[in-house]
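Weekly structure sync, notes
Attendees: PL (lead), two postdocs, one rotation student
Agenda item 3: pending single-chain targets
PL asked that the sequence for the first pending target be pasted directly into the notes so everyone works from the same version. It is reproduced below exactly as submitted, 222 residues in total.
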Amino acid sequence: MSSNSNLQSVSAYSKIREDILASKFPPNHKLKVKELSGLYDIGVIPIREALSRLESEELVTHVGQTGFTVSQISKEDLRSLVETRILIESLALELSIKNFSNKWEEELVLAFHRLHRTDRVVEINGLRTINRNWIKYHHSFHLTLINNSGLPWLNKFCSELLDHSTKYGVFITVEYPNVPRKSAKEHRDLYDCVLAKDSESSKTLLKQHYHTSIEHILKFLT
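Predicted structure, written out during the meeting:
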């Protein structure tokens, strides 16, 4: 693969992934290779490579001869996803606090303040919708909480689970932009507890935060 083709594949992956997580391409949406090629001005081959990579991460599904679609969502999958996140991220958070360092503290402070000052929903052309900067900063905050574990594979699993959770939360926000999800205090309490190096309380708050999120989302899933 040429370096240019490789760069196009990486770019295609990044753009499609971002649009899936932002629910521009909602669950079950058909991802047509030629349409994506035109949308992103990227060749067909890099688009296919990007979709195959996203399929391996289960954000995209390949359905027989019909091509690719954004993977489905369900109540059962969400429950399994959230409980798995709690198990894995609790360990990663505990290790991150155990390995507390000035560098990690600085990263956490920056990640929290970027999230804290960013509105979840914005108005664009008279319509309320998800703020893509909020998606980015929310993702960064939760990854920063666990990325000091010292275990790269553990961090990788946490990141993949976060992507799938993001798909659920953002989809509900896009579908119901006027229904509030007041998570700012939950993030603040978790942040303060982590900075205080209180591992057990931090894990409890993380679990409560995820259970509150799942109950909010389940109200809107059929």
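Discussion points:
- Residues 102 and 108 are 10 Å apart (CA to CA).
- Residues 75-218 form a domain with the Four Helix Bundle (Hemerythrin (Met), subunit A) fold (CATH 1.20.120.530).
Action: rotation student to compare against the earlier draft before next sync.
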